[in-house]
Amino acid sequence: MNKLVYGGIGAVIGAVAASAVFLALPDKSAPAEDDAFVAMQPLTEEEQAEEDRFLDLNLGAEDAPAVEPLKDAQNVPYYTCEKSPELVAYLGKKGNAIYARRAHLNSFLIATNVLATKDCTCTGKMIPASTLIAFETRMMEAAGVTDLEDLVTQNYYDEARVMSWQIEELCGGPF
Description:
The chain is built from 7 helices and no strands. 57% of the residues lie in helices and 0% in strands. Helix 3 (85-91) runs parallel beside helix 6 (129-143) and helix 4 packs parallel to helix 7 (154-171). The chain is mostly helical. The longest helix is centred in the first third of the chain and has 23 residues, at 2-24. It has a domain at 68-171. The relative contact order is 0.14.
């Protein structure tokens, strides 16, 4: 019986000692109040302009200029159109910066082509890889960059989104 009592007392003393050590440790989860905003620096003029552009961006369908729907449109959604092997190879694998930039430019070219030709079929929604390459080259030269990763293409994608609402109205169905 004495062994049981001594064992119980030892367990209680051990638990009290462990909790005292735990409670004495400093709290690392909350940052100190005085250095909470040290990492925040004022935005540069360029960063502020980009932030303002983002905040002013209003890409709702109601902001797209109205177009007259085609009476005899044969709309085919883009995702159902078969892409040429050359275009698929040129776009590359999804999930990297090069693919994203090329996809932005491709979306812009497709939307521009559909609105210009009023062709809502796959023919109007497919751009040859050579056209995309030529457009990409011109945009890089105009921007003065030699690496596609340095080319800012978000504005082309934003414009393509606005045009896609016009295309849906023009073609009478999903882009």
